[in-house]
What does this fold into?
Amino acid sequence: MAADRLSATFAALADPTRRAILAQLALGDASVSKLAEPFAMSLPAISKHLKVLERAGLITRGREAQWRPCRLEAKALKGVDDWLEDYRRLWEERFDRLEIYLSELQAEERKRGRRK
Amino acid sequence: MAADRLSATFAALADPTRRAILAQLALGDASVSKLAEPFAMSLPAISKHLKVLERAGLITRGREAQWRPCRLEAKALKGVDDWLEDYRRLWEERFDRLEIYLSELQAEERKRGRRK
It folds into this structure.
C-alpha cells in the first residue's frame, strides 16, 4: 500500500461519524439515506463523509442511478492491519514481560502464605 | 479507548513523516535531534510532529531537561488493533471464499488434465 493511500486511510478513520458509517456497512451494503438515519445529520453532510471514505478506498458506491448503495471495502483496512504488524510484537513483548512479573509476584505471595 | 482518543490516534498516523518517526522509535528511544537526522526537516518542524504524536498518546517524552528522549507507546497502537478486530473477520471471510474458489478452479483443471 502506497504511503499516500495509507495516509488517506488513516485520515478517513480519524472521525467518529465515519467510523460509525463503516460499522453500519460491516452489516451490509446501504444507501445514503439509510446510512444517514442514525445520525442527526443532513444528507449533504453524510455525503461529504462518504466522499472521504470513497477517496480513501474504504468504501465503493454502486452504479445504479437512483439507489447508489455503499459497500465497505475491507481490504483497505487490511492495509492498516499490515502496517500494524511491525508494532504488534512490541506490545505483545510488553504484555509478556508484565505476565512474567505478575506470576513472579504471585509466586512470592504463595511463599509468604506458606510461611504464616 | 474513548472515541476522541482513537480519532486523535488515527489523525496522528495520517502522515508519512510521523509514521517514519514511530518506525524509528520502534528500534529504541531517541532524542529529537537523532529523530530529525533522516529527514530534511528543521528541529521545530520535527518538534511539531512529535507534539501531535504525544497528544495522541503514541509517544511520551522523558523529563531530562537537556535530552528529552522520545519513547514509543505501543499500547496506543493496540487501541487501533482492537478497533480493527471487528473488521478482521470481513477480509478473512473474503479470503476464505477466494481460496475455496481457487481450489475449485484447480480441481476443475485437474479433471480436464485427466481427460486429455
